[in-house]
Amino acid sequence: MRKLRVMPYLGTILAVIWLWYVFSLVLGNNLLPGPLPTFIRLVEEIGQAWFWKHIQSSAYRILAGLACAFLTAVPLGLLLGSSRRLDRLFTPFIYLSYPIPKIVFLPIILLLFGLGDAGKIILIALIIFFQLLITTRDSARQVGREMIYAFKSLGGNRWHFFRHVVWPVSLPGIFTSLRIGVGIAVAVLFFVESIGTRYGLGFYIIDAWGRADYPAMFVGIIGLSGIGIVLYESFDLLEKRACQWQRS
Amino acid sequence: MGTSPEFLQIKGLTKIFPNSGAPKVVLQDVNLSLHACDSIAVVGPSGCGKTTMLLIISGLLPSTRGSITLEGEFISKPTYKMAVVLQEYGLFPWKTAKENIVLGAQMRNIKVPAKTLGALKSELGIEGLDRLYPHQLSGGQRQRVALARALLLNPKLLLLDEPFAALDTITREHLQNHLLALFHHRNFSFILVTHNIEEAVFLGRRIVVLNERTSGIQTIIDNPGMGQRDYRERPEYFQQVLLLRHTLKEAE
């Protein structure tokens, strides 16, 4: 089973490295460093404690942003999905605010919360919040009438309804949204780490770019992609544990 | 056999759905009673209000007018004295067979001894399915799990909404026999909603025919032969099937 999962990954990595190598030959090493010099640089950087501090700072901001979005959007989404009255009340607010590109609030958030981690985490959380909220609400709405009757006939209360019906119905949708959220969080992280920080892979990439140190820039890109892959796979694994009925 | 006529009383039951156009009267002044340890089969054309009636009796749907009492208590919400088996079995796909069976007891904070649970599973022939999810079970197994869930807390009244509709003929007959055996052993009453004429005659001591035009009861057919050994092979069974078929044609 594990072998089946690793093989496509290895194949894809090898294909990307081969394409990368071809492009570096076509474009020239100055513009696009080849895989070998980049990997040599990666090995050098991995030995440095400050490189790990960049990774640690980025991972912390993404995880904190995802956690804040999860803890606020999921309960609200479950509530809206199972209460028509509340949903009617909140829908206009969601529909008006969802299409606004939240990234434009960066200056305001930085003014309000400062240049430290708080502002960066809040912006990541704010961007993921809406998609997580809408996915959770829509997933919770999938509880059919038959399911409600079956549940009520067993004598459960409102808390039981959330625990035994709404939560499991919504879980697959929540995990899908979290996986999509990882990609968005990484993109937003790159943007927010270009301002007011000296640690984080976003800063590391911008800094290397400014110094025209392209191998280092690619090391940063690999690091950021690595964080994204680890988080994506973690959510995949968590989903398999939490939604066992889907895989059996 | 119990004889109390007061076990279940339905008086003046009316249900009107407030549609955006004209309100739809689904049930109009339905009066019915059920003895303890007795059975009723409800038949009628599609849309005549059979399922609505069952949902109102179970306390899952409010009535517009009328009252339902079970052992003298008014019913306005689900009670542990009743259990419902819905058309699509009503099993939760994310819970295993065992988790589905014990959910009602768990939510009502009732501890079910392992011995009781084991005996019920054995009675229904569903041992060894504990860890399987509903989609891993056959239609017949799912139905048995749904029955086990309904019977776990020993309800006095079992409400069944076309419970065997999705099953093949052999499995259906097998489960009908099984339901009858449980009915004799466990001393509960049941109301069965069905489209199937043979099923109604085999399982209902009285057969209530609903009329779509009047939204009420067209007639009640007594079926004293129900529960007899090899009833399906007796001439009176075929006569009852014929009678019900004619009555249903009139109800359309």
Shape of chain B: globular
Domain count of chain A: 1
Instruction: Indicate the percent of residues in helices of chain A.
Output: over 70%
Q: Count the beta strands of chain B.
A: 10
Rounded to the nearest angstrom, the radius of gyration of chain A is 22 Å
The whole-angstrom Rg of chain B is 18 Å
User: SSE order of chain A in H/E notation?
Assistant: HHHHHHHHHHH
Name of the CATH architecture of the largest domain in chain B: 3-Layer(aba) Sandwich
In CATH terms, the superfamily of chain A is MetI-like
**What is the residue-mean pLDDT of chain B, rounded to a whole number?**
90
Strand-pairing-aware structural class of chain B: alpha/beta
Give the helix/strand class of chain A.
mainly alpha
The span between the termini of chain A is 14 Å
Protein model, in words:
The complex is a heterodimer of chains A (248) and B (252). Chain A is mostly helical. Chain A is built from eleven helices and no strands. Chain A has helices at 2-27, 35-46, 49-82, 84-97, 106-113, 117-140, 145-153, 158-192, 201-210, 214-242, 244-247. Chain B has two domains: 36-62 and 69-81 and 155-252, Rossmann fold; 92-153. By secondary structure, chain B is of the alpha/beta class.
